[in-house]
Amino acid sequence: MEQQSLFSVISPIMVGPSSSHTAGAVRLGLMARNIYNAPFLKVKFILYNSFATTGFGHGTDKGLLAGLLGYSVDDSRIKNIFDIIKNEIDYSFEYVEDISRFPNSVDIIIDGKRKISGDSIGAGEIRINSIDKFPININGNYDTLLMFYKDKPGMISRVSDIIQKYEINIATLHCGRNSKGGIASMCIELDMPAKDEIVEKVKALKDVFFVTNVRKLK
Q: pTM for the complete prediction?
């Protein structure tokens, strides 16, 4: 009798047997897709610890790639994703043991341009904890305005003023920087999606060099 991976088991709400290794992996891929927000040709996944040692049997590799390509957690095509995409995307996987990282952790490097790091924390829940080594905190439960800019006084008030003029409530706001006056990040969770006009106005602010509207996961 032919042996089957546990990943071939399909439940009504997700493909695969593990919420952390399969559904969480798909959601991490989906969130990386929402953050990058552009077509891509090449991706490298670095899987850590439990993702690295047991992820193959749970379809973690397939889930990550499928999520990055926009597949939902309950899409039965995920288990055949490598055959479906064939040579359309250049993808690779690396497996690492690192006790400083969360047990179910991954780095997603897209087109060699953007490194998105995240964890699958259980029950299908995730967190994105850094982008290009900048600490952030995105869990996919809110629409989020994400930006990088030159650290200087007044930027938080300028951005929040733009958002408030559209009567959108700010749920949380997190900032980080690599050094005083260096590059800073701002991650603003919103109660509703930011309008395109908000994104364009934030982009137009002096010393802002990256802005993206990260859609919440469904």
A: 0.85
